[in-house]
Amino acid sequence: MDPAKERTECPAREKCPVFLAMSSGTVRYAPSGLGLALKGNLGEQSWDTDSQPHPDEGHPPPLEAVPVPWKSVGPCKSHRDSGLVETPAGKEAQGEEDPAATRLDVLRLRSSSMEIREKGSEFLKEELHKAQKELKLKDAECERLCRVRGQLERELEELTASLFEEAHKMVREANMKQAASEKQLKETRGKVDTTLFAEFQAWRESPTLDKTSPFLERVYREDVGPCLDFTMQELSALVRAAVEDNTLTIEPVASQTLPAVKVAAVECGRTNTCALSGLACACRHRIRLGDSESHYYISPSSRARITAVCNFFTYIRYIQQGLVRQDAEPMFWEITRLRKEMSLAKLGFFPQEA
Fold it and tell me: What InterPro entries does UniProt report for this protein, alphabetically (predicted)?
Protein backbone atom coordinates (compact mmCIF):
# COMPACT_ATOMS: atom_id res chain seq x y z
CA MET A 1 0.00 0.00 0.00
CA ASP A 2 1.15 3.46 -0.96
CA PRO A 3 2.17 5.41 2.15
CA ALA A 4 0.87 8.71 0.74
CA LYS A 5 -2.49 7.21 -0.11
CA GLU A 6 -2.76 5.59 3.28
CA ARG A 7 -2.07 8.91 4.95
CA THR A 8 -4.68 10.88 2.95
CA GLU A 9 -7.65 8.47 3.19
CA CYS A 10 -10.13 8.76 6.10
CA PRO A 11 -10.40 5.44 7.97
CA ALA A 12 -14.12 6.08 8.70
CA ARG A 13 -14.94 7.50 5.31
CA GLU A 14 -18.25 5.74 4.85
CA LYS A 15 -19.44 6.21 8.46
CA CYS A 16 -18.07 9.58 9.51
CA PRO A 17 -20.90 12.03 10.14
CA VAL A 18 -18.69 14.97 9.20
CA PHE A 19 -18.02 13.47 5.82
CA LEU A 20 -21.65 12.66 5.27
CA ALA A 21 -22.70 16.19 6.26
CA MET A 22 -20.12 17.76 3.99
CA SER A 23 -21.06 15.45 1.12
CA SER A 24 -24.78 16.33 1.44
CA GLY A 25 -24.12 20.09 1.74
CA THR A 26 -25.74 20.34 5.15
CA VAL A 27 -22.60 21.74 6.81
CA ARG A 28 -20.17 24.25 5.43
CA TYR A 29 -16.71 24.74 6.79
CA ALA A 30 -14.69 27.90 6.61
CA PRO A 31 -11.13 27.85 7.84
CA SER A 32 -10.29 30.85 10.02
CA GLY A 33 -7.05 31.51 8.14
CA LEU A 34 -8.72 32.12 4.80
CA GLY A 35 -10.11 35.44 3.64
CA LEU A 36 -12.90 34.05 1.55
CA ALA A 37 -15.39 31.37 2.48
CA LEU A 38 -15.65 28.35 0.31
CA LYS A 39 -18.50 28.61 -2.05
CA GLY A 40 -20.41 25.98 -3.88
CA ASN A 41 -21.83 22.70 -2.96
CA LEU A 42 -19.22 20.25 -1.92
CA GLY A 43 -21.56 17.52 -2.92
CA GLU A 44 -21.28 18.56 -6.57
CA GLN A 45 -17.63 17.59 -6.74
CA SER A 46 -16.25 14.20 -6.22
CA TRP A 47 -14.31 13.75 -3.06
CA ASP A 48 -11.06 12.19 -4.05
CA THR A 49 -8.69 11.46 -1.28
CA ASP A 50 -6.19 9.99 -3.71
CA SER A 51 -5.14 13.29 -5.17
CA GLN A 52 -4.40 16.48 -3.21
CA PRO A 53 -5.36 19.89 -4.62
CA HIS A 54 -2.64 22.37 -5.27
CA PRO A 55 -2.61 25.79 -3.79
CA ASP A 56 -2.49 27.43 -7.14
CA GLU A 57 -5.77 25.87 -8.10
CA GLY A 58 -7.75 27.88 -5.49
CA HIS A 59 -8.52 24.98 -3.18
CA PRO A 60 -7.73 25.03 0.53
CA PRO A 61 -4.82 23.02 1.79
CA PRO A 62 -5.47 19.59 3.23
CA LEU A 63 -7.21 19.43 6.58
CA GLU A 64 -4.22 17.86 8.18
CA ALA A 65 -1.99 20.60 6.97
CA VAL A 66 -4.16 23.51 8.18
CA PRO A 67 -5.56 22.80 11.65
CA VAL A 68 -8.52 25.10 12.13
CA PRO A 69 -11.54 24.93 14.40
CA TRP A 70 -14.72 23.66 12.86
CA LYS A 71 -17.89 25.74 13.10
CA SER A 72 -21.30 24.65 12.06
CA VAL A 73 -23.16 27.47 10.34
CA GLY A 74 -26.29 25.41 9.77
CA PRO A 75 -28.03 24.75 6.48
CA CYS A 76 -28.16 27.44 3.90
CA LYS A 77 -31.19 29.54 3.21
CA SER A 78 -32.02 27.57 0.16
CA HIS A 79 -32.14 24.40 2.17
CA ARG A 80 -34.40 25.95 4.80
CA ASP A 81 -36.74 27.34 2.19
CA SER A 82 -36.84 24.22 0.13
CA GLY A 83 -38.48 22.34 3.06
CA LEU A 84 -35.97 19.56 3.00
CA VAL A 85 -36.41 16.95 5.61
CA GLU A 86 -33.91 17.05 8.43
CA THR A 87 -31.09 14.64 7.95
CA PRO A 88 -30.65 11.64 10.13
CA ALA A 89 -27.74 13.46 11.75
CA GLY A 90 -30.14 16.19 13.02
CA LYS A 91 -32.51 13.61 14.39
CA GLU A 92 -29.65 11.89 16.12
CA ALA A 93 -28.63 15.22 17.71
CA GLN A 94 -32.21 15.85 18.88
CA GLY A 95 -32.33 12.39 20.31
CA GLU A 96 -29.17 13.12 22.21
CA GLU A 97 -30.73 16.34 23.75
CA ASP A 98 -33.92 14.63 25.07
CA PRO A 99 -32.19 12.82 27.99
CA ALA A 100 -30.59 16.08 29.10
CA ALA A 101 -33.96 17.88 29.14
CA THR A 102 -35.43 14.99 31.05
CA ARG A 103 -32.65 15.16 33.61
CA LEU A 104 -33.20 18.93 33.86
CA ASP A 105 -36.91 18.43 34.51
CA VAL A 106 -36.11 15.80 37.12
CA LEU A 107 -33.69 18.19 38.81
CA ARG A 108 -36.30 20.93 38.78
CA LEU A 109 -38.90 18.60 40.29
CA ARG A 110 -36.41 17.50 42.90
CA SER A 111 -35.55 21.10 43.77
CA SER A 112 -39.28 22.01 43.97
CA SER A 113 -39.94 18.99 46.16
CA MET A 114 -37.04 19.90 48.43
CA GLU A 115 -38.29 23.49 48.65
CA ILE A 116 -41.80 22.29 49.53
CA ARG A 117 -40.35 19.96 52.14
CA GLU A 118 -38.28 22.76 53.64
CA LYS A 119 -41.29 25.10 53.80
CA GLY A 120 -43.45 22.34 55.25
CA SER A 121 -40.79 21.53 57.79
CA GLU A 122 -40.51 25.21 58.79
CA PHE A 123 -44.31 25.46 59.11
CA LEU A 124 -44.46 22.33 61.24
CA LYS A 125 -41.61 23.61 63.40
CA GLU A 126 -43.47 26.90 63.95
CA GLU A 127 -46.69 25.07 64.82
CA LEU A 128 -44.77 22.78 67.17
CA HIS A 129 -43.17 25.80 68.84
CA LYS A 130 -46.59 27.45 69.26
CA ALA A 131 -48.07 24.23 70.68
CA GLN A 132 -45.16 23.86 73.10
CA LYS A 133 -45.54 27.49 74.17
CA GLU A 134 -49.29 27.06 74.75
CA LEU A 135 -48.60 23.82 76.63
CA LYS A 136 -46.12 25.61 78.88
CA LEU A 137 -48.70 28.34 79.59
CA LYS A 138 -51.32 25.74 80.39
CA ASP A 139 -48.90 23.89 82.64
CA ALA A 140 -48.11 27.13 84.47
CA GLU A 141 -51.85 27.84 84.88
CA CYS A 142 -52.43 24.31 86.15
CA GLU A 143 -49.61 24.72 88.66
CA ARG A 144 -51.08 28.04 89.82
CA LEU A 145 -54.54 26.51 90.22
CA CYS A 146 -53.06 23.57 92.10
CA ARG A 147 -51.32 25.96 94.46
CA VAL A 148 -54.54 27.93 94.98
CA ARG A 149 -56.47 24.72 95.62
CA GLY A 150 -53.86 23.54 98.08
CA GLN A 151 -53.96 26.87 99.88
CA LEU A 152 -57.76 26.79 100.05
CA GLU A 153 -57.69 23.23 101.36
CA ARG A 154 -55.19 24.19 104.04
CA GLU A 155 -57.24 27.23 105.04
CA LEU A 156 -60.39 25.09 105.13
CA GLU A 157 -58.68 22.52 107.30
CA GLU A 158 -57.39 25.23 109.64
CA LEU A 159 -60.84 26.83 109.81
CA THR A 160 -62.49 23.48 110.49
CA ALA A 161 -59.96 22.69 113.19
CA SER A 162 -60.44 26.12 114.80
CA LEU A 163 -64.23 25.73 114.69
CA PHE A 164 -64.06 22.30 116.29
CA GLU A 165 -61.68 23.62 118.91
CA GLU A 166 -63.98 26.57 119.63
CA ALA A 167 -67.00 24.29 119.82
CA HIS A 168 -65.20 21.94 122.19
CA LYS A 169 -64.14 24.92 124.26
CA MET A 170 -67.72 26.18 124.47
CA VAL A 171 -68.95 22.73 125.40
CA ARG A 172 -66.33 22.44 128.13
CA GLU A 173 -67.24 25.88 129.48
CA ALA A 174 -70.94 25.01 129.43
CA ASN A 175 -70.28 21.74 131.22
CA MET A 176 -68.16 23.52 133.79
CA LYS A 177 -70.86 26.14 134.36
CA GLN A 178 -73.52 23.44 134.61
CA ALA A 179 -71.41 21.53 137.08
CA ALA A 180 -70.81 24.68 139.11
CA SER A 181 -74.53 25.48 139.09
CA GLU A 182 -75.42 21.99 140.16
CA LYS A 183 -72.84 22.15 142.91
CA GLN A 184 -74.12 25.52 144.07
CA LEU A 185 -77.68 24.24 143.96
CA LYS A 186 -76.74 21.23 146.07
CA GLU A 187 -74.96 23.46 148.54
CA THR A 188 -77.92 25.83 148.83
CA ARG A 189 -80.53 23.13 149.22
CA GLY A 190 -79.64 22.81 152.86
CA LYS A 191 -79.98 26.56 153.32
CA VAL A 192 -83.44 26.83 151.78
CA ASP A 193 -86.38 26.98 154.07
CA THR A 194 -87.92 23.61 153.60
CA THR A 195 -91.33 25.00 154.59
CA LEU A 196 -91.34 27.58 151.79
CA PHE A 197 -90.16 25.05 149.23
CA ALA A 198 -92.77 22.55 150.32
CA GLU A 199 -95.48 25.18 150.01
CA PHE A 200 -94.24 26.06 146.51
CA GLN A 201 -94.20 22.41 145.43
CA ALA A 202 -97.75 21.98 146.69
CA TRP A 203 -98.86 25.06 144.78
CA ARG A 204 -96.97 23.93 141.63
CA GLU A 205 -98.89 20.66 141.52
CA SER A 206 -102.11 22.67 140.98
CA PRO A 207 -101.12 26.28 140.21
CA THR A 208 -103.83 28.86 140.84
CA LEU A 209 -104.12 32.56 141.66
CA ASP A 210 -106.34 31.93 144.65
CA LYS A 211 -104.91 33.63 147.71
CA THR A 212 -106.16 30.81 149.97
CA SER A 213 -103.18 28.61 149.04
CA PRO A 214 -100.44 28.70 151.69
CA PHE A 215 -97.78 29.72 149.15
CA LEU A 216 -99.64 32.74 147.67
CA GLU A 217 -101.07 33.72 151.08
CA ARG A 218 -97.47 34.02 152.41
CA VAL A 219 -96.33 36.03 149.32
CA TYR A 220 -99.31 38.40 149.63
CA ARG A 221 -98.71 38.90 153.31
CA GLU A 222 -94.94 39.35 153.18
CA ASP A 223 -94.33 41.02 149.78
CA VAL A 224 -97.34 42.07 147.66
CA GLY A 225 -99.34 43.79 150.39
CA PRO A 226 -96.50 45.90 151.84
CA CYS A 227 -95.20 46.78 148.33
CA LEU A 228 -98.59 48.15 147.22
CA ASP A 229 -99.42 49.89 150.50
CA PHE A 230 -99.39 53.62 149.55
CA THR A 231 -100.50 56.73 151.41
CA MET A 232 -103.66 57.08 149.31
CA GLN A 233 -105.42 53.94 150.60
CA GLU A 234 -108.44 54.14 148.30
CA LEU A 235 -106.36 54.43 145.14
CA SER A 236 -103.97 51.81 146.50
CA ALA A 237 -106.81 49.26 146.77
CA LEU A 238 -107.87 49.99 143.18
CA VAL A 239 -104.29 49.57 141.97
CA ARG A 240 -103.96 46.26 143.85
CA ALA A 241 -107.16 44.91 142.30
CA ALA A 242 -106.08 46.01 138.80
CA VAL A 243 -102.71 44.30 139.24
CA GLU A 244 -104.38 41.04 140.33
CA ASP A 245 -106.79 41.23 137.37
CA ASN A 246 -104.00 42.22 134.97
CA THR A 247 -105.87 45.36 133.85
CA LEU A 248 -103.44 48.05 134.99
CA THR A 249 -101.62 50.08 132.34
CA ILE A 250 -98.43 52.11 132.84
CA GLU A 251 -97.45 54.56 130.11
CA PRO A 252 -94.84 57.32 129.92
CA VAL A 253 -95.81 60.98 130.01
CA ALA A 254 -95.29 62.97 126.83
CA SER A 255 -91.85 64.58 126.70
CA GLN A 256 -92.02 68.12 128.07
CA THR A 257 -89.82 70.37 130.10
CA LEU A 258 -91.08 70.81 133.66
CA PRO A 259 -90.32 74.11 135.47
CA ALA A 260 -87.35 73.68 137.77
CA VAL A 261 -88.71 75.80 140.67
CA LYS A 262 -89.79 75.17 144.19
CA VAL A 263 -93.07 73.33 144.76
CA ALA A 264 -94.52 76.13 146.89
CA ALA A 265 -94.15 78.55 144.00
CA VAL A 266 -96.05 76.27 141.54
CA GLU A 267 -99.73 75.82 141.32
CA CYS A 268 -101.01 72.39 142.21
CA GLY A 269 -100.63 70.37 139.03
CA ARG A 270 -101.04 66.60 138.51
CA THR A 271 -97.72 66.15 136.75
CA ASN A 272 -95.90 67.49 139.81
CA THR A 273 -97.62 65.36 142.47
CA CYS A 274 -97.67 61.57 142.83
CA ALA A 275 -101.26 60.34 142.99
CA LEU A 276 -100.30 57.38 145.26
CA SER A 277 -97.83 58.88 147.70
CA GLY A 278 -99.00 62.48 147.55
CA LEU A 279 -95.42 63.68 147.32
CA ALA A 280 -94.45 66.59 145.07
CA CYS A 281 -92.04 65.33 142.42
CA ALA A 282 -91.55 65.09 138.67
CA CYS A 283 -93.90 62.39 137.47
CA ARG A 284 -92.71 60.84 134.20
CA HIS A 285 -95.32 58.04 134.12
CA ARG A 286 -99.04 57.66 134.65
CA ILE A 287 -101.34 54.72 135.27
CA ARG A 288 -104.77 53.83 133.96
CA LEU A 289 -107.05 51.35 135.72
CA GLY A 290 -109.03 49.04 133.49
CA ASP A 291 -111.12 50.77 130.81
CA SER A 292 -111.29 54.01 132.76
CA GLU A 293 -110.31 57.18 130.96
CA SER A 294 -108.79 58.64 134.11
CA HIS A 295 -105.03 58.83 134.37
CA TYR A 296 -103.00 59.07 137.57
CA TYR A 297 -99.49 60.46 137.52
CA ILE A 298 -97.04 58.49 139.67
CA SER A 299 -93.50 59.03 140.87
CA PRO A 300 -90.52 56.81 139.89
CA SER A 301 -90.61 55.11 143.31
CA SER A 302 -94.29 54.21 143.00
CA ARG A 303 -93.73 52.97 139.47
CA ALA A 304 -90.86 50.69 140.64
CA ARG A 305 -93.04 49.15 143.39
CA ILE A 306 -95.95 48.52 141.00
CA THR A 307 -93.61 47.09 138.33
CA ALA A 308 -92.00 44.64 140.79
CA VAL A 309 -95.41 43.26 141.78
CA CYS A 310 -96.54 43.03 138.14
CA ASN A 311 -93.39 41.04 137.24
CA PHE A 312 -94.15 38.53 140.02
CA PHE A 313 -97.75 38.03 138.89
CA THR A 314 -96.68 37.71 135.26
CA TYR A 315 -94.30 34.84 136.13
CA ILE A 316 -96.78 32.85 138.20
CA ARG A 317 -99.36 33.28 135.40
CA TYR A 318 -96.80 31.74 132.98
CA ILE A 319 -96.40 28.81 135.37
CA GLN A 320 -100.18 28.43 135.64
CA GLN A 321 -100.50 28.42 131.79
CA GLY A 322 -97.73 25.81 131.44
CA LEU A 323 -95.35 28.13 129.57
CA VAL A 324 -92.46 27.58 131.99
CA ARG A 325 -90.91 24.15 131.35
CA GLN A 326 -88.41 23.79 134.19
CA ASP A 327 -87.93 21.75 137.30
CA ALA A 328 -89.32 22.87 140.62
CA GLU A 329 -86.00 24.15 141.96
CA PRO A 330 -85.24 26.66 139.11
CA MET A 331 -88.83 27.94 139.35
CA PHE A 332 -88.53 28.38 143.09
CA TRP A 333 -85.26 30.33 142.75
CA GLU A 334 -86.81 32.63 140.14
CA ILE A 335 -89.79 33.33 142.42
CA THR A 336 -87.37 34.03 145.24
CA ARG A 337 -85.55 36.56 143.05
CA LEU A 338 -88.83 38.31 142.16
CA ARG A 339 -89.77 38.50 145.86
CA LYS A 340 -86.37 40.05 146.52
CA GLU A 341 -87.08 42.77 143.91
CA MET A 342 -90.44 43.55 145.60
CA SER A 343 -88.69 43.88 148.96
CA LEU A 344 -86.03 46.23 147.51
CA ALA A 345 -88.66 48.38 145.75
CA LYS A 346 -90.67 48.58 149.00
CA LEU A 347 -87.54 49.90 150.73
CA GLY A 348 -87.02 52.54 148.03
CA PHE A 349 -84.25 50.86 145.98
CA PHE A 350 -85.01 51.03 142.29
CA PRO A 351 -83.11 51.76 139.05
CA GLN A 352 -82.57 55.42 138.24
CA GLU A 353 -84.28 55.09 134.84
CA ALA A 354 -87.50 54.22 136.61
Answer: RAB3IL/RAB3IP/Sec2, Sec2_N
